[in-house]
Amino acid sequence: MSPVLPLPAPWIDGLPRDVRGFVVPAEAGWEDGAPVLAKVGQDRKVALGMRRACGVCGFVLPKGRAVYRAFAQVDAAHIRMHEREQSHDDSGPLHLSCVLYSAMVCPYLRERTARMSRTGINPGGRRGTRAAVIGFAGFGLLVPMHAYKSSQPAMPKFAYVQMVEDIPYVDGADLTDRYEAAVRSDRNIIDMSVPRMFWTGEEPPDLKRALRADVKAISRRAENSEFVYTQMIENEGEFGALPL
């Protein structure tokens, strides 16, 4: 039997769909004119993060409110045990309603037996029996140290600070009540009167302009030593955290 999927909130419902009917997140990668949901668009994630925009709906994440990501079982356990104060992830922050919707409709996040596709993020990786949506008090960019001086700087990761909420689940349907409550709550904080941050296609001109501006801003802040802290990431070297 096919799972009963939730109705998208108004700020999600306006997003484009892929050929299968899945909502296309703002941070999704694009290839050959089509979205690839298994990949994160590296340019998009930086442009969204620099503007404090949600990686799903593209609307602004208000300051002073928790931000969220969904994690597979192993990653969630690692954060609980070792990274409750300072964590990091390749992808950007989301509203609670947006991440819960994703966890309920994305086949990988929804199903306890799911594996990632052989392409994209963590090829073939298992979701695990007990995944989790985790909330953090704040976030920033993790910039590869000195990479901003290169003509082709490496893409940042995201820093997440102070774990404030932990929502474990087995199946996506377990999140139904929490999702409905989050939609009611997020209605009060998501401003749909302004354009959402969303770009279609591989290299739209306005995304290129945004990224050029972001690289300059990141470089300027890094040169002014605005790093909150630095950390070593295995096999990738030292990164400096810039708050957003």
TrEMBL record:
What is this protein's record name? Answer: Uncharacterized protein
Q: Which organism is it from?
A: Rhodococcoides yunnanense
